[in-house]
Structure formats: C-alpha cells, structure tokens
Design a protein that fits this description.
The structure is a single chain. This protein is elongated. It is of the alpha+beta class and 119 residues long.
Length: 119
C-alpha cells in the first residue's frame, strides 16, 4: 500500500511540473512541417537553430511580417528557390534568412520541435 502512495505522489509531482511548464516536451518533425509552422506564425516571435553558410551554428529569435525597415526595392531573387526563409532578427534588428536545409530546431508558441533528417 505504501508503494502505491509513493507512486501517486510522484505522479502528482510530475503532473504539477508539467502544468507549470517546467518541463518542455519536444517533438520531432520534418523539414517541410517546420517550414509550415514558421509560415503560420503570423508575425509571432519564434526561435530557430540552424547552421550558417560559414558552418557556425546560430540560434535566432525572429519573426516574419516585419515591414518597418523596408525600402521598397524588393529582392532580386526568390528565397524559396534557394531553400531560404526570410525573417526579421529581433536581436540584430535586421532582416536575415534561415537556411531550411540546415534547420535543426524551432520553438513556436513555447513548443520546441526538433527537425529530423530524411534517411
């Protein structure tokens, strides 16, 4: 009887910590699903971990839909053709691109997703 009480106390403790969001659950998703989640953020802040062109790993806090520093010229290429996602970097206060081919992790609305590679 004492073992079941201990187990129930542990279960209550676990449930309480989950409710308080002290434990983050991570899910594995595909690259295509990750791109969908980013495009569906509708201007909300999210973070992304990816490898830059020079090989450096980068964690970026960003959002889409920012128009403040646009000069009206537009891009001379289509980012989608180069597997790039255009975002506004909130830390550097500048427009940047995320390479979706090297995307490793995103956090959207408090949920962390790890991008699984195709085998």
């Amino acid at each position: 009887m004492e073992e079941t009480q201990d187990a129930s106390l542990v279960l209550v403790y676990i449930l309480k910590n989950i409710e308080e969001k002290k434990w983050r659950l991570t899910m594995k998703i595909s690259k295509e699903t990750a791109k969908e989640y980013i495009y569906k953020t509708n201007g909300k802040i999210f973070s992304a971990v990816f490898t830059k062109k020079d090989g450096e790993k980068r964690k970026m806090l960003c959002r889409q839909g920012v128009h403040k520093y646009v000069k009206g010229k537009g891009l001379k290429f289509l980012p989608e053709e180069h597997s790039l996602i255009g975002v506004f970097d909130l830390q550097k206060r500048a427009y940047r691109f995320i390479n979706s081919n090297t995307l490793e992790q995103i956090t959207v609305q408090g949920k962390t997703y790890i991008i699984k590679e195709k085998k």
